[in-house]
């Protein structure tokens, strides 16, 4: 196989302000971890059936429970060299990067730098025994380094993307440098059927806890990562269309032609720079749990939020509050305006909750504007120009990060992308199952943003485009 040509491909990013708020970020993230014992105490539509299995998050079959860090990242615990370490789960990269001293490890003395869209780390490649998702890997290669500026309050990352985007695999140039998933999948090379992962992301209780809402719905969805199995109750995902993998990166696939449905329910014209060259109205998108928000081309973002009465495009967020100086260009929205947006893949629509198209930034970081007003911003942000440089981060038009993935259960079958696979191994694909419930999503918006009184029927009409 053409293995590997890319030195690094790393897309771990998120809304920078949230992490650049220094001490604040740490206290927020530790305060908002969802207690795991809460997950099965609630009766709701997302109830996970294996109640008896929910415990310390590392023991059930091949399932890992994740912590939601203020809706901007999702973390889990791995055991490396016998030590438990909390790391951020990233579907947009493929190295394992772990800070601090790891016991029982072997230092290969090979130096490596990793660069993410929002941070970086420098250290040496080591190997140690890894326990993750019910699997044990004897000599898992990892980079012993702390990644700067992660929003998760951790400085380690487990990249669960394909192998040939791994700079550790590249540096070792052998299966000794296999990624965590390659190591796991190669434990049974006779059958590739179960060489897939799934990811189910929930909403942070943060916003709901501020709302006085007694019955928030979206919060109840659990945060679960699985290997080779589907979460109980979500088997329907097997019937979802199999989306082919677009070139270059693992989770990159194509939206339908003009596959962003705007707030008026109509398709927005889209033009791809990097997608299918024979059909350039399909955006190529990366489904990336390491990015907190959703990043789309500027013209598409403007077509969405430019139609919201009272919305403003803010180039310098420091105009709102000097502490927000590090934020990229964004749209500020009236907090009470409900905005609905959907994506379309293979003819199926995947709507976003209005609490994901509009984020209460004040709720997340405790910062208001100079008039002491709450700040709500679009959860869809124009993709910064430096992200769409194909020679650096990759060739894609958009990143569908956590604000999208909280509304979709995702399965990624790796097939022939697994290191060492042969030509008879099936091609990889992605399947997506909407977890959106229109009634629940709307009610949660009404309860959190409108004090429980549904005035959306009389909200001002969208502006014309
Ligand atoms: C990664 O591996 C796949 C499968 O072998 C291949 O099609 C793809 O071109 C490779 N990508 C890179 C960047 O090497
Ligand atoms: C997690 O739970 C399992 C089964 O309940 C137990 O065997 C294991 O030791 C626990 N692990 C930790 C780290 O507590
Ligand atoms: C990870 O371990 C820490 C410390 O033991 C614990 O507080 C946290 O809840 C664990 N996270 C998960 C997702 O299990
Ligand atoms: C690993 O080896 C390198 C080079 O030999 C050394 O500089 C580095 O400190 C070692 N790392 C640890 C954690 O000991
Ligand atoms: C890593 O980055 C440091 C600082 O920029 C540089 O000095 C070093 O040479 C780099 N190491 C590698 C292996 O690229
Ligand atoms: C790595 O991150 C630090 C901030 O933590 C920054 O100063 C430095 O320029 C970054 N290095 C690279 C190579 O991006
Ligand atoms: C990597 O290993 C292969 C053989 O497995 C070899 O052909 C190739 O030249 C090596 N690449 C580098 C950069 O060392
Ligand atoms: C590999 O997978 C096949 C089919 O699922 C199974 O029958 C076999 O027991 C597995 N082997 C190992 C070593 O797990
Ligand atoms: C979208 O594209 C269609 C077909 O090319 C065109 O007729 C229409 O005017 C475009 N709409 C906008 C808003 O640009
Ligand atoms: C690219 O577009 C062509 C023409 O519409 C189509 O036949 C082909 O299947 C597309 N490729 C992908 C990867 O969607
Ligand atoms: C945003 O969150 C803040 C802080 O928790 C809360 O006080 C406020 O009511 C929320 N604002 C809106 C408009 O929901
Ligand atoms: C959608 O949410 C509503 C309100 O919470 C609930 O009554 C209904 O059962 C849910 N529908 C499905 C299909 O889960």
From TrEMBL:
Name listed for the protein in its UniProt record: Peptidase A1 domain-containing protein
Record's signal peptide: 1-31
Keyword Signal: yes
Organism domain of life: Eukaryota
GO annotation terms (biological process): proteolysis
GO molecular function, one term: aspartic-type endopeptidase activity
InterPro entries, sorted: Aspartic_peptidase_A1, Pepsin-like_dom, PEPTIDASE_A1, Peptidase_aspartic_dom_sf
Domain Peptidase A1: 74-422
Record Pfam families: Asp
Residue stretches spanning the membrane: none
UniProtKB keywords: Signal
Family: Belongs to the peptidase A1 family.
